[in-house]
C-alpha cells in the first residue's frame, strides 16, 4: 500500500482545532492516482479540504477493475514509518510481502493489517493466477506518538465480527461498532466497518458522538443522512452524532470510518508519517541507503526510489486547508 505520487506534498495535519464539533455533510470527491504499473485509484484522503478522520489519514478506493488480461496490482517494495496500513477487498486478491518475511494472500472480507512502527518495507501485487475483478480500499491509520517506535508487525484476520439489523450487515474491520470489536490491533479509539445495505434498506446505524465520521461508498448508491453518494465518493460527517440514517434504493456497500479526533499534529510525506520534517528527511535517506527498513524478498522487480523532497521549510496547515 503506497503513495506513488512522484511529487508528494510535505504537510502537517492533525490536532483538534479544525474538527467539526457538530454534525456536518461535507462531500469529498477523489482524484485519480496511478498505483503501481496498472491500477488507478481514487484518492479521497488527504484531500484539498480535509486530511484526517480520527486517526484515519489516507483513503484510496479502486475498482471494480477488469484485470482478466492484465497484471492487476503491482506495487514494488517501499517503506513506511509511523502508521498502520489496512487492506480491505471486496473482489480479487492481493499478495502481501514484507521485510519481516511475511507472505500472505489477502482475500475479500479478510483484514490485512500492517503496523509499520519504527520502520518496515512491503510490496503488494495481484497473484499470477487471479480473479477477473479487483475492487477494494487502501487505508492508513496514524500512530500516536507514544507508539510510533513500536516493533513492526503484520497481522492477518479471516474472522471478523458482524453487526446485523433488518436490511443491514456491517463487518467490523477495525475498532468497535455497536458492541462488536475487531481482533485487529489499534492504538487509538477508532472504527472502520464495511456496511452492506439491501435494496430498500432504511436503517439508522448507532454512532459514538465523541467520534468524527465519514462514509465511503464502494458500490451501489447509498443515501447517507439524506445525501446521495455515488461510488468512490466520501462524505465527511463531523462529530456529535448518536446515529447515522442510511437508505439504499439498490444493494449498496459502504465503508464507515470514524474515530476520536487525533490530537497530535503529524507530518505526512510519501509513505512516511512523522512529527518533524527532519524525521522525514532521515527516513528517506535511510531508505535510499538501504538501512533501517530491511529487504522484501520474492518481488520480481526493483524496489521504489523515493521522490525528491520539496525545497523550503515545512508550512503547518492543520487538518483542513
Q: What's a quick, concise take on this entry?
A:
Helix content is 4%, strand content 49%.
Considering the chains and any ligands shown, give keywords for the structure.
321 residues; mainly beta; eight-stranded antiparallel beta sheet; seven-stranded antiparallel beta sheet
Q: If you had to describe this structure to a student in words, what would you say it looks like?
A:
The chain has a single domain, classed as Jelly Rolls, CATH 2.60.120. It has one helix at 277-289; strands at 11-14, 23-29, 31-35, 39-45, 56-66, 74-80, 83-91, 94-98, 103-106, 111-115, 120-125, 133-142, 153-157, 162-165, 168-177, 180-181, 190-197, 202-206, 212-219, 222-224, 227-229, 233-238, 243-248, 252-259, 265-269, 272-274. The chain is built from one helix and 26 strands. Strand 20 and strand 21 form a beta hairpin. It is mainly beta. The mean pLDDT is 92. The strands form five sheets. Strands 2, 14, 15, 16, 17, 19, 22 and 24 form an eight-stranded antiparallel beta sheet that branches. The radius of gyration is 18 Å and the shape is globular.
Number of strands: 26
CATH-derived architecture: Sandwich
Average pLDDT works out at 92
Largest sheet features: 8 strands, antiparallel
Topology order in helix (H) and strand (E) letters? EEEEEEEEEEEEEEEEEEEEEEEEEEH
Protein name: Pirin family protein
InterPro entries: Pirin (IPR012093), Pirin_C_dom (IPR008778), Pirin_N_dom (IPR003829), RmlC-like_jellyroll (IPR014710), RmlC_Cupin_sf (IPR011051)
Organism: Streptantibioticus ferralitis
Family: Belongs to the pirin family.
Amino acid at each position: 500500500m503506497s503513495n506513488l505520487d512522484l511529487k508528494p506534498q510535505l504537510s502537517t495535519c492533525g490536532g483538534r482545532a479544525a474538527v467539526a464539533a457538530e454534525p456536518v455533510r461535507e462531500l469529498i470527491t477523489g482524484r485519480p492516482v496511478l498505483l503501481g504499473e496498472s491500477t488507478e485509484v481514487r484518492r479521497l484522503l488527504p484531500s484539498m479540504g480535509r486530511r484526517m478522520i480520527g486517526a484515519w489519514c489516507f483513503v484510496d478506493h479502486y475498482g471494480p477493475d477488469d484485470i482478466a488480461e492484465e497484471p492487476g496490482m503491482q506495487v514494488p517494495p517501499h517503506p513506511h514509518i509511523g502508521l498502520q496500513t489496512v487492506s480491505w477487498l471486496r473482489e480479487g486478491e492481493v499478495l502481501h510481502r514484507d521485510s519481516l518475511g511475511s507472505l500472505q494472500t489477502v482475500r475479500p472480507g479478510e483484514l490485512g493489517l500492517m503496523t509499520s512502527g519504527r520502520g518496515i518495507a512491503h510490496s503488494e501485487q495481484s497473484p499470477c493466477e487471479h480473479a477477473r475483478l479487483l475492487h477494494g480500499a487502501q487505508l492508513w491509520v496514524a500512530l500516536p506518538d507514544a507508539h510510533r517506535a513500536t516493533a513492526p508487525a503484520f497481522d492477518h484476520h479471516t474472522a471478523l465480527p458482524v453487526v446485523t439489523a433488518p436490511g443491514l450487515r456491517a463487518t467490523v474491520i477495525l475498532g468497535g461498532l455497536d458492541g462488536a470489536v475487531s481482533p485487529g490491533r489499534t492504538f487509538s479509539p477508532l472504527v472502520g466497518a464495511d456496511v452492506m445495505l439491501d435494496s430498500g434498506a432504511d436503517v439508522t446505524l448507532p454512532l459514538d458522538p465523541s467520534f468524527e465520521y465519514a462514509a465511503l461508498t464502494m458500490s451501489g448508491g447509498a443515501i447517507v443522512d439524506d445525501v446521495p453518494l455515488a461510488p468512490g465518493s466520501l462524505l465527511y460527517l463531523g462529530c456529535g452524532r448518536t446515529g447515522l440514517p442510511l437508505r439504499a434504493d439498490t444493494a449498496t456497500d459502504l465503508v464507515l470510518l470514524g474515530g476520536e479526533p487525533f490530537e497530535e499534529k503529524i507530518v505526512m510525506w510519501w509513505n512516511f508519517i512523522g512529527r518533524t520534517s527532519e524525521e522525514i528527511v532521515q527516513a528517506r535517506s535511510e531508505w535510499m541507503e538501504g538501512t533501517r527498513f530491511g529487504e522484501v524478498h520474492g518481488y520480481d522487480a526493483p524496489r521504489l526510489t523515493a521522490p525528491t523532497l520539496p525545497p523550503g521549510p515545512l508550512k503547518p496547515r492543520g487538518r483542513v486547508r
